Every structure is written in structure tokens, then in C-alpha cells.
Amino acid sequence: MTGTTSSPTARIPLRTAVIVGSTREGRTGESIARWFAGRAAQDERLTVDLVDLARYDLPRRLPRRPTLPMRELTATIDRAEAFVLVTPEYNHGYPASLKQAIDVGCDEWFAKPVGFVAYGTGGHGTRAVEQLRLVFAALHVVTVPDVVSFDLADGTLHDGRPRDGERTDVAVRRMLRQLTWWAEALREAHAARPYVA
Ligand SMILES: Cc1cc2nc3c(=O)[nH]c(=O)nc-3n(C[C@H](O)[C@H](O)[C@H](O)COP(=O)(O)O)c2cc1C
């Protein structure tokens, strides 16, 4: 079934945070995230904010009181209405940097949608994504089913940009369609009544 948008709030672009999940030195993730953020910014339903976890000096040990970078990251999560996590696969899971960033927030994540851009070497990063779905269930997050994924070993990416134009673009459009549907629906729901966990 196709739908038409009737809500006036649907015309205000959705504040979408594209999160660079890897903070590893020499990481590939930054260029993939920059490509994806540029591609997503072409979508007039979105305003895109690139959130690079490497820029936040998050403490190695969780302190009793949040540090300034923790508060800044939490505020960034709070402002966003939708997220796209750009995640590598590390040992069949997702990187610790991403878990740390997720754990910094709590109700700032609640009742918002998350999409994924995933990659690995030999794998496509999908095992990282499936683990993240479990984690986000604890945070009342809707994770969208379709994933934009890459295997770095097969040469599809060059300098973080896909070479296979149309195939990747179909995957991006599908994921963004699901993400924006949920983000618009949840924006309206949040406006109608507060989310009570
Ligand atoms: C600690 C570590 C574990 C990895 N484990 C996997 C893995 O299980 N599956 C996979 O497909 N690639 C794996 N890789 C390859 C990474 O996906 C690849 O190096 C990628 O570039 C990492 O993302 P990044 O460069 O943005 O940090 C691993 C890489 C590292 C550093």
C-alpha cells in the first residue's frame, strides 16, 4: 500500500545523526560514513549531522557523573530524531567504541528509529548489526530491517565510496524509506503523547 503524507510536521526535515562507529586509527569507517552522509543529505526529507565518535573524549571507565564529552554526546543523541549507525564487524560483533557511545545515553534513544550501514572483510558486517538489534531492544529503539552493507574484500568500495552505483543506491533508498517512515510516525507520536518506558 502506498501512503500520502498528511501531517504538516512531515514537511520539516528529520534530524538524522549518521554515527561513525569505528574510532580505530586508520579506520575505513570515516570515509564510508562521509559518503553515506552526503548521499543521505540528497534526501529532502532529512537534515544530516555526521557524528564522529572519535571527536568525543569518552572516558575508558564510566564515571559516576557524566563528563562534558559524555553530556555533549548525550545532547547530540537527544536532538536527533533518527540515526544511521555506520558499523564495522569486529570478531563477529560490533566495536567497543559503539557500545560505549550507546551506553552513554539512555532515554535519549527511546522510541526513535535506527538504520545501519555495515561492513566487514570477508563478511558484510551483518553479524555486528544483528547484535546491535539486541542491544537497541533495551533502549526501546526501532531498528529497520534493510541494511546497506559492504564486504571490503570484494572491491565494491573505493576510498569509502561504492563502485556499483545502482545496486547500492537501491539498498540506500530502501533503508532510508523504512527509516523515514518510522521517524515520521514516531515524530507524530511523540508530539501527541510522551513516550513512557
Ligand atoms: C579487531 C578486528 C576484528 C575483525 N573481525 C572481523 C570479523 O569478524 N569479520 C569481518 O568481516 N571483518 C573483521 N575485521 C575486518 C574489519 O571489518 C575491517 O578491518 C574494517 O576496516 C574495520 O573497520 P574500520 O577500519 O572502520 O575500523 C576485523 C578487524 C579488526 C580490527
Q: With helices defined by DSSP (H or I, 4 residues minimum), what is the helix count? A: 5
Shape: globular
Quaternary assembly: single chain
**Bound ligands:** flavin mononucleotide
Mean pLDDT reading: 94
Major sheet details: 6 strands, parallel
Beta-strand portion reads 15-25%
Q: What is the H/E string? A: EHEHEHEHEEEEH
Radius of gyration over alpha carbons?
16 Å
Number of domains: 1
CATH domain fold name: Rossmann fold
Would you tell me the structural class of the helices and strands? alpha/beta
Helix content: 25-40%
Number of strands: 8
Could you name the ranges where pLDDT drops below 50 across 5 or more consecutive residues?
none
At the first level of CATH, what is the class?
Alpha Beta
Superfamily at the CATH H level? Answer: Flavodoxin domain
Describe the fold and architecture:
By secondary structure, the protein is an alpha/beta fold. It has a single domain (20-57, 70-191), classed as Rossmann fold. Helix content is 38%, strand content 20%. It is built from five helices and eight strands. The chain has helices spanning 29-41, 68-79, 96-104, 126-138, 165-192; strands at 14-20, 46-52, 82-88, 113-120, 142-143, 148-151, 157-158, 161-162. Strands 1, 2, 3, 4, 5 and 6 form a six-stranded parallel β-sheet that branches. A hairpin with a 2-residue loop joins strand 7 and strand 8. The protein starts with 13 loop residues before the first strand and ends in a 5-residue tail after the last helix. The model has no long low-confidence stretch (mean pLDDT 94). This is NAD(P)H-dependent oxidoreductase. GO terms for molecular function: FMN binding; oxidoreductase activity.
